[in-house]
Amino acid sequence: MSAQYLLPCACGQKVRVEPAQAGGQVACACGAKLYVPTLRGLRQLEAAPPDKSVRSAGRQWGPVRGAMFSIGLLVTVISLLVLAYTYLQFAAASDWTQDQTPLIHEAEGQAIEKMGLMESLEAFYILRNEGLGEPVEPFWVTAQKVVAEKRALMIGAGSLALAGAIAAIASLLIRPARA
Ligand SMILES: [Zn+2]
User: Fold this and answer.
1) Dihedral pair phi/psi, residue 98, rounded to 5°
2) Most exposed among 1, 32, 86, 141, judged by the fewest C-beta atoms under 10 Å?
């Protein structure tokens, strides 16, 4: 940004002018038209302090825009954390989703083969008297459910992260409303 100078007006206010305006006219806030001196004359003027209002104008955050950015960013960060955490659970559960029925049947078969006659009878009576008990969900079925649940959660978290990122980026792209 080039240096700026303060051009005093008869009303007492000072109008900020740039070298590019040298020799031209500017309007004071009071409505008066001021002639801007030439470059040489400009340098005689009081130098303007760094213009915070101009510099910050591009980043002026309306409340909606600011909220959109912070909420968007927050949603993105949280969703990504949830996504990462869910992925770990998903990956862990994925290791257990394979149907182990053949293995278990094989193991049971081997166990039964190794049983003596009395043991087999005993096992048979225990089964007959006590029943098979509550049907227990095989762990791979549980794992499959977990995986499906985590997958849905990951899709949800991913979509939220994307939506949050879009909101945050959009809030940056929106032109600030100049008051
Ligand atoms: Zn004035």
Assistant:
1) -70, 135
2) 1
Question: What does the DSSP 8-state code read for residue 19?
Answer: G
Residue with tokens 């009303």: 11
Instruction: Indicate yes or no: pTM above 0.90.
Output: no
Residue 95: band (very low, low, confident or very high) from pLDDT cuts 50, 70, 90: confident
CB within 8 Å of 176: residues ≥ 6 apart:
57, 58, 59, 60, 61, 62, 65
- Which amino acid is present at 162? L
CA of 15 to the centre of ligand 1 (A): 8
11: CA distance to ligand 1 center in Å?
Answer: 4
Percent of the chain with pLDDT over 90: 41
Distance 117 CA to ligand 1 centre (A): 113
**C-alpha–C-alpha distance, residues 121 and 117, integer Å:** 6
Distance (angstroms) between ligand 1 centre and the Cα of 7 equals 10
User: Cα torsion for 29, 32, 38, 40, to the nearest 10°?
Assistant: -60
CA–centroid distance, residue 36 to ligand 1 (Å): 13
Q: In angstroms, what is the span from residue 152 Cα to ligand 1's centroid?
A: 65
